[in-house]
């Protein structure tokens, strides 16, 4: 059984906080220790440029995030750890995929729609005011990050699931248009990691300014924990651990036995001051060793740079090979190139049934994306049955008028239309 590939990227626009650690870094490092997976972890500094135009902030964040992963024990012999901008194959693949991506797909991206809605609510005539092409098309860059290494599993938050679906659509369209080279990734959402609360009880996020930086000094860590909001219940009064930010953070670090004991303390009326002190002492003990390692790495950035460049060489060995296949399939070829048909046939025979099913599913998704406007017309017609029959008749005539490859493509579209419209025939 071939290894599955896991890929995770962190945008370099801030200093890592406890939410980043629990939600992304810790589970990623744990997964990298599993020999059943190939792990790719990268600093998404191209993505940082979309919203952050402060070069010092991007640079500082890149240094901090790289040092954080290493300080927390990432073994770069077991995982591929690299900086996005050190892989020139990624922007090239981004362009090739951009040429296969419909504008309509990008119009549906949550970030773009949210910006348009904000402009509409502000009464602006230009609904695209302040929206850059980076913001509009960044789901394609994200798709390239994933498809560059044919990743299988992408750990993401709920707000990023749409982008994984878009990556699947883009891959399916490429595979249908050219050659089935791109794997269709799956989003992996850990419900527990979505519930990490910040100082004010909301999800810990830089956007809410409610984070606890991962490697602050002990005094600052205690000061921040003291700011965590609690209710007005006094010492001796039973408290609900399930609604307490203090308990939820403690639970994310503690063992099941320690968590059970803390739950009992809450039910017996532990004082809020004591609960905050207990959380501080536990976090400080847990983070003190990696904190010292982090400080050492930040004082030896030449070493960190060497690690990233080594990871880039490792990543590029895979990226260059995959990009070459994409280039050849899409027609970017040496003048003397002759397609090795026998080799292509052999590769196709070696694919597993599961791989073939996934390729076929991607091909059908890509075709349905193109057919959606036609299907919508039928769905909105007063006489749906007549509209469906007319559309199929028109497509049948198109099939009969074409030859060879174009005819086969049209026939595939007709077959899918017949399946989708069957309910009205």
Brief description of this entry?
By secondary structure, the protein is mainly alpha-helical. The chain has helices spanning 18-32, 45-51, 55-71, 89-98, 103-107, 110-121, 133-147, 161-177, 218-226, 245-253, 256-267, 272-298, 301-330, 341-349, 353-380, 384-401, 404-421, and strands spanning 4-11, 37-44, 79-83, 153-155, 186-188. The protein has 3 domains: 4-192 and 300-330, Rossmann fold (3-Layer(aba) Sandwich); 215-298, Tyrosyl-Transfer RNA Synthetase (Orthogonal Bundle); 365-424.
Helical content stands at 55-70%
CATH domain class name of the largest domain: Alpha Beta
Q: Pairing-aware structural class of the strands and helices? A: mainly alpha
- Rg, Cα atoms, Å: 26 Å
Report the major sheet. Answer: 3 strands, parallel
- Could you state the order of secondary-structure elements as H and E? EHEHHEHHHHEHEHHHHHHHHH
């Amino acid at each position: 059984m071939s290894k599955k590939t896991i890929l995770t990227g962190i945008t370099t626009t801030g200093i890592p906080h406890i939410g980043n650690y629990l939600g992304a870094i810790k589970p990623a490092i744990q997964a990298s220790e599993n020999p059943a997976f190939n792990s790719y972890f990268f600093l998404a500094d191209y993505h940082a440029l979309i919203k952050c135009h402060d070069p010092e902030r991007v640079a500082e964040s890149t240094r901090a995030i790289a040092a954080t992963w290493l300080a927390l024990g990432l073994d770069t012999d077991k995982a591929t750890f690299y900086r996005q901008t050190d892989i020139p194959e990624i922007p090239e693949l981004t362009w090739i995929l951009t040429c296969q991506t419909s504008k309509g797909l990008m119009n549906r991206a949550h970030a773009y729609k949210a910006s348009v809605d904000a402009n509409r609510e502000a009464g602006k005539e230009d609904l695209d005011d302040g929206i850059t092409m980076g913001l509009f098309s960044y789901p394609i860059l994200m798709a390239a990050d994933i498809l560059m290494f044919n990743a299988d599993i992408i750990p993401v938050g709920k707000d990023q699931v749409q982008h994984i679906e878009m990556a699947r659509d883009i891959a399916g369209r490429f595979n249908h248009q050219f050659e089935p080279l791109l794997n269709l990734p799956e989003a992996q959402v850990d419900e527990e990691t979505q519930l990490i609360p910040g100082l004010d009880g909301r999800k810990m996020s830089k956007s809410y300014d409610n984070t606890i930086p991962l490697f602050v000094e002990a005094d600052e860590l205690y000061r921040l924990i003291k700011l965590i909001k609690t209710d007005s219940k006094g010492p001796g009064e039973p408290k609900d651990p399930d609604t307490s930010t203090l308990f939820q953070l403690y639970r994310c670090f503690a063992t099941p036995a320690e968590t059970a004991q803390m739950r009992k303390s809450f039910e017996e009326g532990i004082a809020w001051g004591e609960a905050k002190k207990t959380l501080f002492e536990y976090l400080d003990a847990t983070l003190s060793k990696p904190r010292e390692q982090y400080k050492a790495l930040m004082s030896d950035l030449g070493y960190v740079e060497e690690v990233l460049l080594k990871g880039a060489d490792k990543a590029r060995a895979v990226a260059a090979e995959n990009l070459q296949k994409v280039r050849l399939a899409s027609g970017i070829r040496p003048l003397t190139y002759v397609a090795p048909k026998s080799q292509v046939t052999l590769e196709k025979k070696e694919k597993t049934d599961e791989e073939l099913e996934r390729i076929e599913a991607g091909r059908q998704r890509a075709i349905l994306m193109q057919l959606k406007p036609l299907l919508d017309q039928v769905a909105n017609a007063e006489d749906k049955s007549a509209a469906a029959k007319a559309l199929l008749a028109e497509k049948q005539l198109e099939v009969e008028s074409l030859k060879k490859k174009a005819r086969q493509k049209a026939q595939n579209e007709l077959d899918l239309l017949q399946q989708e419209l069957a309910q009205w025939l």
